[in-house]
Amino acid sequence: MAATKKIRIRVYVVFLGVILLLGAVSVRLFHLQVLEHSRYIKLAWDQSQGNLLTLPVRGKIFDRNMNPLAESLDTKSVVMRTASFDPKSESLQRVSNVLDISLEKLETQLPTSTQFTYLKRKLSPEELATTQALWAEAAIQSSGIFLIPDTKRFYPQRCLASHILGFTGFDEQGYDNHGLEGLEFYYDHYLRGQAERLQVPMDAKRNSLNSWALELKNAGYNLILTIDKNIQYMVERELENTFRNERARHAIVIVMDPHTGEILAMANHPDYDPNDFAKYPPEYYRNRAVAWDYEPGSTFKIIQTAAAFEEGILSPSDRYDNHNGFLDGSLHTSEEWQALKFLSVEDILVQSSNLGAMKISEQLGIQRFYEYMKRFGFGELTGIDLPGELSGTLREPKDWSSISLQSLSIGQEISVTPLQMARAFAVIANGGMLYTPYVVREIQQKDGTPVLQVEPTKVRRVISRRTAEMLRNILTHVVEQGTGKRAAVNGYRVAGKTGTAQKFNRAMGNYSSTSLVTSFIGFAPADYPQVVIAAIIDEPALNEWGGTVAAPLFKRITERILPYLDISPEQQRPELVAWMGDRIDSK
């Protein structure tokens, strides 16, 4: 009896244990399958996937007529699972031999924090063609090496507008698709789009499965420029010829619409091909139209003249005693026109008299001269949408020396950028208004939907229409009768000013007699200007005057641009001049 009772108790204990065990298992299963279902689904997914950060298709860049200047071509990149990296792997060695990959160098740079390693980025069409059969082999597919979709930045016009466009490359974190120079850098946030992290399928051994396809999303925005590809081409060809013929150090040309601030062309030489920028010295990347300053010389003489006209101090016909080339009986200026006893204000600009310019500045006075230099935009950024812009140097009057007023009147003791000078002449061309220059006129989504449309920005009125008209007439005579004769264009009236500036030698503390900057800045047609053109040649080796180096360059560019813009000589009629006045008044 006692034995039977003990057996019964044991059965109950075992049964109770089984019940408790089943209950515990049920509770655990409920916890895993219901309460933690999402967590374990995610864990299982993560274990079957690999993460790879990819960058989206970069936006395109077009000129004003929708000609492509920068685009991204479809290509492939080779990646492998970081944990699978083995320099002795036969598959890896075959891939490295075909694609000329240095495994030793790659091993030293192998990341430890990422699941995938790039073996080679952005394969060329030739590399894709020669390796097509390789990727179909089972041994390659199972070794953790595979291709992913990618894009490669391409500049179809090669060197054209390279200093405006810039280029892309790797940033400090090692990510590609980032703008490093030019518009690619300035508008990088709009162009590059949003990066995405891709989930790459893996097998049980954590090898990638190749039966998958990726679509790169979140494309960047497109830029529509103010630049005209054809005008840019004309400018660059003429600039290159002058640069080579004169054996110059640098050369710059800017073409601007004076009524809006739009940049139609901006060229530098030497230039470079952004498709292969690494083979050029970094100095070539610098856009000297905005990121280089110089002493302007005689082109600056328009500033005090404009100020004197605006203040009612002088008129074009007022005359000065030339003193046979002496100022205050002591300072001699060696000039072609020193034998003339009297010079009119117009003569001073037409013949580019240094002595006359100094006398105008003395009559104007220090404070008013300084105020007008500021009003014309000197000593400040123009605000153009390009990186690296310099403001130039304009010292306050308290820092001037006893001869600063005279020096400034002939374009010394001040540094300016080519763009600042082009903008100053645009003030005269458009009737007195200072505009903010710009190179991007619209930002669009991939489907063409506008994101941002840029409108011309008036900064301030600098001079009156009447003052601008007087200066336009004088600058026309500079070309017809004075130092700018070689800028004359058959069939058109053009206006402008020559400049030849000695470069200051900081080491010697004086101005060089051999290192010069020659320039011609003007506009056309003179009576209703449609373009301002600034041509600056740094250290020409053969000729030394703005009238013999830069003026002919201005001429050749102008005689190509005006017909292209459908501005024919017979259009220069009085009714169009009157229309020009109405256009100025409306500003």
UniProtKB/TrEMBL annotation:
<feature type="domain" description="Penicillin-binding protein dimerisation">
    <location>
        <begin position="56"/>
        <end position="205"/>
    </location>
</feature>
<dbReference type="GO" id="GO:0005886">
    <property type="term" value="C:plasma membrane"/>
</dbReference>
<protein>
    <submittedName>
        <fullName>Division-specific transpeptidase, penicillin-binding protein</fullName>
    </submittedName>
</protein>
<dbReference type="InterPro" id="IPR005311">
    <property type="entry name" value="PBP_dimer"/>
</dbReference>
<dbReference type="InterPro" id="IPR050515">
    <property type="entry name" value="Beta-lactam/transpept"/>
</dbReference>
<dbReference type="GO" id="GO:0071555">
    <property type="term" value="P:cell wall organization"/>
</dbReference>
<dbReference type="InterPro" id="IPR036138">
    <property type="entry name" value="PBP_dimer_sf"/>
</dbReference>
<dbReference type="InterPro" id="IPR012338">
    <property type="entry name" value="Beta-lactam/transpept-like"/>
</dbReference>
<feature type="domain" description="Penicillin-binding protein transpeptidase">
    <location>
        <begin position="252"/>
        <end position="558"/>
    </location>
</feature>
<keyword id="KW-1133">Transmembrane helix</keyword>
<dbReference type="GO" id="GO:0008658">
    <property type="term" value="F:penicillin binding"/>
</dbReference>
<dbReference type="InterPro" id="IPR001460">
    <property type="entry name" value="PCN-bd_Tpept"/>
</dbReference>
<dbReference type="Pfam" id="PF03717">
    <property type="entry name" value="PBP_dimer"/>
</dbReference>
<keyword id="KW-0812">Transmembrane</keyword>
<dbReference type="Pfam" id="PF00905">
    <property type="entry name" value="Transpeptidase"/>
</dbReference>
<feature type="transmembrane region" description="Helical">
    <location>
        <begin position="12"/>
        <end position="31"/>
    </location>
</feature>
<keyword id="KW-0472">Membrane</keyword>
